[in-house]
TrEMBL record:
Family note: Belongs to the glycosyl hydrolase 1 family.
Pfam families hit by this protein: Glyco_hydro_1
Phylogenetic placement of the source organism: Bacteria, Bacillati, Bacillota, Clostridia, Lachnospirales
Domain of life: Bacteria
Single GO MF descriptor: hydrolase activity
Taxonomic source organism: Hungatella hominis
Protein name: Glycoside hydrolase family 1 protein
The keyword Transferase appears for this protein: no
InterPro entries: GH, GH_1_N_CS, Glyco_hydro_1
UniProtKB keywords: Hydrolase
Membrane among keywords: no
Amino acid sequence: MTFKNGFLWGGATAANQYEGAWNIGGKGASISDHCTCGSQSSPKRITPVLEKGTLYPSWEATDFYHHFKEDIALAKEMGFHVFRMSINWSRIYPTGLETVPNEEGLKFYDNVFHELSKAGIEPLVTISHYEIPYALVEKYNGWYSREVINCYIRYCKTIFARYQDNVKYWLTFNEINSGTLPLGAVLSLGTVKGYCGPIADVPDEKQIRYQGLHHQFVASAKAVKIAHDKYPHFKIGNMSIFAAKYPSTCNPDDVLLCQKRMRDMNWFCSDIQVRGYYPCYAKRFFDENNIQIVKDSGDDKILRDGKVDFYTFSYYMSACESADPAIVEQAGGNIIGGIRNPYLKSSDWGWQIDPKGLRYSLNEIYDRYQIPLMVVENGLGAFDRLEEDGSIHDTYRIDYLRQHIRQMAEAVKDGVDLMGYTPWGWIDVVSASTGEMAKRYGFVYVNKYDDGTGDLDRLKKDSFFWYKNVIESNGENLD
């Protein structure tokens, strides 16, 4: 048997893309509730003022709020061991500024965790997944202000205490290293005060981004320390995008550029969260980009004392790096940049499909950190066709996942300590990158469309039954 006993098979979601009920039960608006719908050709926008007649897909999303019992029953039918989800910060503290939490919001998650417990499914909870309360964006320009650390810690203390008997596994921030990208300043850092243009056109202010990231590092470390001190049964992880990079040739210039891109994108944030200090290469990067991180005197100790217990990441694609300006071009639809790899195929959205890159990534990460790993996002966004009889034949998704699971197994044989696997959007959710429903990932089809119509019926795709067999066989049966 390749995967160990107790391997955590399951699926992943996020409240802002799945939960809906954006203004029900005392919930306040999050930054995602100010995101319009979009498409491949028309980027979504963030509007400081909610526009009448504009579609905001997170308002209903695929309505886990009213369907959680049905959805958890589907997860149980597939045999899930773990259910990755997030708590919506603004459902607990509607503006993030309150000193007393919203009891109705807390009760909702009580009910969710009770249902998961009845189903024998372990929750894996992301504390903040692209849904900072919008009031903190307006008042503080999001994580750029140190004040938001206190708001976050108040929120963490509340949910830790409330759900201490329900949740063992926590992740502090989703894809924290997305904040190293201009796009990440929008959703992960909330540093978009007054912004209303297409997300793709966010102005790049590196000083703001990296100061905001520093505040997130401190907040994450403080949360880890609280958990370790008060709830020793908790396991707290980080969560990063892992964007595998290859030099496009053996030219040393390409190799050095690739190494730099790996550091900038993949290693910078996790080096701090796993090792507990800023990496040596950060100094040159900050000097060359005129970035001056403002720290409080105790911040370095906080980072040292708040190292995570395990490393989790999303993996969707890889890219190549070239130092030759004559051949560099943005890989269409490939959000991590770089140039196209001629040996790989691409998804409907232009993301290059690289299963062996997952094995490579797992080995690189584990060699570097030597702590347990978990793949908490991986999947294929595709156009799914609903047949007249209600079936969805998504053989392309099965093939994608099969190849990636095979490479996970190879990494385990290589010696990687792999905890589990939660493919992204195990049920259809709103796309984070484009704000559309047409880009579907799930094993379960949700009858919801880009124009907001649909009755939200849940339908099992062919991949539902395939993944059920994968879990039952602990990854041995991939046919």
